[in-house]
Design goal:
316 residues, alpha/beta, Rossmann fold, L-2-Hydroxyisocaproate Dehydrogenase, Chain A, domain 2, 2 domains, six-stranded parallel sheet, three-stranded antiparallel sheet, 14 strands, 42% helix, globular
């Protein structure tokens, strides 16, 4: 059984992922962490979630704190703390503001829960994953981000809808930045085990329209309802369950890469990675020349911003 700590638990995503994580059979303890001054809200969320788990027959020990020291003995720390993205705001505009929060949080986790794994959700997630890695002083395979996992699931769903097949028949993924420069891997996309390019119907697939929907999904949800909640919450629970269940699934998350993708690396960014109790391990892959070029551009974009943010943090 495992303990999961959620930092930023008073936010929309933090609260909902506490609910989804509470339904994972391997989890018997959840700690909700929030900043000082939010004690009443934390107490209310804890009581409400406890009632939910009781109604569902879930035996989960749920508690709250404003002291990161209470995260000790955690198996996974999910970090959702930070300033939410506003309508029309690029994820990367959030970088420095959220980096200040994440750096302090990661440092505290490294001190109080050094054996835990950090799952970064705060945006821009690729940059924040690098910040968490730097300031936690943990091993690279113990620090990862939500990355393009949800983007990949969105693409998978849209392809299934277009071809009118069950979503489980579609295997695809998006690598690179969780943002505008994300790269869909059509060369690695199959339907029913058949390479998508070998299906005559692929010729009529509105690729640009589909990717436009994937790229704008978060922005559209934020514009219409103020925040993305359910998609990220379920995606976070999937990653937590994969690790705690020692499933060895290959999912696309933000992880530190060296040379796994055509010798492009030295940055945290969305890539396929094998996930288990020992950590998150990027999988070496070969992709088409066009995908390599686009992935390289995405990496350079994130690497440049990450370097700038880390440099500015030194003077904070």
């Amino acid at each position: 059984m495992a303990k999961v700590t959620i930092v930023g638990a008073t936010g929309n995503v933090g609260t909902f992922c506490a609910y989804t994580i509470g339904h994972i059979p391997y989890v018997d303890e959840i700690l909700l962490h929030g900043r000082e001054g939010r004690e009443n809200l934390l107490a209310g969320i804890t009581r409400d979630l406890s009632d939910s788990f009781a109604a569902a027959g879930k035996a989960v020990n749920l508690s709250w704190t404003t002291d990161l020291a209470d995260a000790r003995n955690s198996d996974i720390v999910v970090c959702t703390a930070g300033v939410a993205r506003k309508p029309g705001q690029d994820r990367l505009d959030l970088a420095l503001e959220n980096a200040r929060i994440v750096s302090k949080t990661a440092e505290g986790i490294g001190i109080h829960a050094p054996d835990a794994m950090i799952l970064m959700v705060t945006n821009p997630v690729d940059v924040m994953t690098s910040v968490a890695l730097r300031y936690s002083h943990m091993a690279p395979h113990h620090v990862f981000g939500l990355g393009t996992h949800l983007d990949s699931m969105r693409l998978k769903s849209l392809i299934a809808r277009h071809f009118r097949v069950h979503v489980s028949e579609v295997h695809t993924r998006i690598i690179g930045e969780h943002g505008e420069s994300m790269v869909p891997l059509w060369s690695a996309t199959t339907i029913g085990g058949i390479q998508i390019s070998n299906l005559p119907a692929f010729i009529g697939l509105p690729v640009d329209d589909i990717m436009g929907v994937v790229r704008s999904s978060g922005e559209e949800i934020i514009r219409n309802k103020g925040a993305t909640v359910y998609g990220p919450g379920e995606a976070i629970a999937t990653l937590v369950r994969t690790i705690l269940g020692n499933e060895n699934r290959i999912l696309t998350v933000s992880a530190y890469i060296r040379s796994e993708v055509h010798d492009i690396g030295d940055v945290c960014i969305g890539v396929p990675a094998r996930m288990n109790r020992q950590g998150v391990f990027p999988v070496p892959i070969k992709i088409s020349e066009d995908e390599v070029a686009r992935f390289r551009e995405s990496v350079e974009k994130i690497r440049t911003i990450t370097a700038a943010v880390l440099e500015k943090l030194k003077t904070q």
